[in-house]
Design goal:
- The structure is a single chain.
- With 145 residues, this protein is an alpha+beta fold.
- It has a domain of 82 residues: hypothetical protein PF0899 fold (2-Layer Sandwich).
- Helices cover 21% and strands 30% of the residues.
- It contains two helices and eight strands.
- It has a four-stranded mixed β-sheet, with helices on one face.
- Strand 3, helix 2 and strand 4 form a beta-alpha-beta unit.
Length: 145
């Protein structure tokens, strides 16, 4: 069974002069993954009722590079919170999406690197374009037994 859900995505965000000390990978508190996991489980419980399923066997998640969602935290919270639900023992599959940026000075697009500086003109004002901040359930598999 295949189904898609959008959980969390934001509009364009500008970044200016962000140093590595100000913006480090995983700098946000890992605790924010718990409400996200609870939403995933709640959504899957609703889907099992709607579709007459007994259990969810696999959940395919799309995670943008800048979403601040940490796989290990999601996995840990999921294993604990899913006990006793149709999601118990379901496999989580993580599909990471790179962030694409666009320089507001020279208008060129480029993949996110170590910082938020344009590799072409050195501009320090960039816009996140398209992918990079998304987090959603792309699909899931479930069954009767």
């Amino acid at each position: 069974m295949l189904c898609c859900f959008l959980f969390w995505a934001q509009g364009p965000v500008f970044f200016q002069k962000v140093s590595q000390t100000e913006k480090t990978e995983g700098s946000a508190s890992a605790m924010h993954e718990l409400p996200v996991v609870l939403d995933i489980i709640r959504t899957m419980e609703e889907e099992t009722k709607k579709r007459g399923l007994k259990k969810i066997t696999e959940i395919d998640l799309v995670i943008g590079e800048l979403s601040s969602i940490v796989d290990e935290s999601v996995q840990m919270y999921f294993e604990i919170a899913a006990e006793g639900t149709p999601c118990a023992n379901a496999k989580l599959v993580f599909d990471h999406r790179p962030a694409m940026l666009q320089c507001t000075v020279c208008k060129r697009k480029f993949p996110h690197g170590k910082d938020f500086l344009c590799p072409y003109c050195g501009g320090d004002s960039v816009l996140v374009q398209g992918t990079g901040r998304e987090f959603y359930i792309r699909s899931y598999d479930g069954g009767q037994g």
